Amino acid sequence: xxxxxxxxxxxxxxxxxxxxxxxxxxxxxxxxRISLLHVVEPIMAMPPYExxxxxxxxxxxxxxxxxxxxxxxxxxxxxxxxxxLKVDIGATKSVILHHAHTDNVDLIIVGTHGRHGFSRLLGSxxxxxxxxxxxxxxAVRIGRENSGR
Amino acid sequence: xxxxxxxxxxxxxxxxxxxxxxxxxxxxxxxxRISLLHVVEPIMAMPPYExxxxxxxxxxxxxxxxxxxxxxxxxxxxxxxxxxLKVDIGATKSVILHHAHTDNVDLIIVGTHGRHGFSRLLGSxxxxxxxxxxxxxxAVRIGRENSGR
Lengths: 149, 149
Description:
The structure is a homodimer. By secondary structure, chain A is of the alpha/beta class. The first copy, chain A, has helices at residues 16-25, 59-77, 92-102, 124-132; strands at residues 5-9, 33-40, 85-89, 107-113, 136-142. In chain A, helix 1 (16-25) links the parallel strand 1 (5-9) and strand 2 (33-40). Strand 5 of chain A pairs antiparallel with strand 5 (136-142) of chain B, so a sheet runs across the interface.
C-alpha cells in the first residue's frame, strides 16, 4: 500500500530539506524510490520589453549548475541516489507533470507557504500540479509554525 | 516527524475505505489519531425557486443517520475509535477547515477523481480545502487505475 516512487519538487530555499524529510517519512525502506526535481524557468523577454543589453549570458546554465550543487547536498543529506536528482529547464508545472508521468510517480510532494495557502506563494504552479496530476499530491505547509516539526 | 492527527474527509462512496487505508498507511501506531468526517450539505431552496411541496421532511436528518451508519462501518473496518467519527451539517469546505483547525489536525486527506484531477468531480470543495488549509493536505487520486492499490 505504500508509495513506490515519490517525486519531490524542490526550490532553492532551505525548506527543501523539510520536503525531503516528509518524503522519507512517507517512504518504505528498500521499496520506495525518492526523486528530487528542481525546475529552472527559462528567462524570456516579455514583449514589448527586451532583455537588457547587460543581461549576463549563460545565466540559465549558471542557475542549472547551482541547482545541481544544491540537489547534490540534499541527496547526500537524505541518502537519495544521485541518479534520482534532476534539474530541468521549462515551465515548472509541465516539467513536474512530465517527470511524474514518465517515471511512474505515485506521489508528488510540493510545498506551500503562509497562512493563506497555495495562492500566496507558489501560486499557479502548485495549483496546476494539484489539478492535473494523475497521482496523489501532498501539499506540505511550510511556515514558521511547523518548520521545526 | 510523522503526523499526530489525520482528518479524512469521506463521502458515502465505496472509495471512502481507500482513503482510510491511505490514512493508516501514513499513521504511526500508538501516536497518530485518525478522524473521519462526513459533511452533509444543508438542503436549501435556490431563489427564485422554492422547495417542492412533496419534499420529504427530515431528509437532512435521514442523511445524517445514514452517514453515521456508514462511518461506524468504516470505523470498525479500520480500527478507528467511534469518538473520532464525525458527521456535521454545513458547507463542506468550511466544516472541514473548522474541524481541522479546532482539532489540531496536521494532515487532511481528500479524494480526487478522474483523469482531469480535482476540477472534475470534487470541484470547488477540495480546491478550497487545498487553498485554505493551515496544515498539510494529501489529495488522493481515486480512479480505476489505482483503486486496487
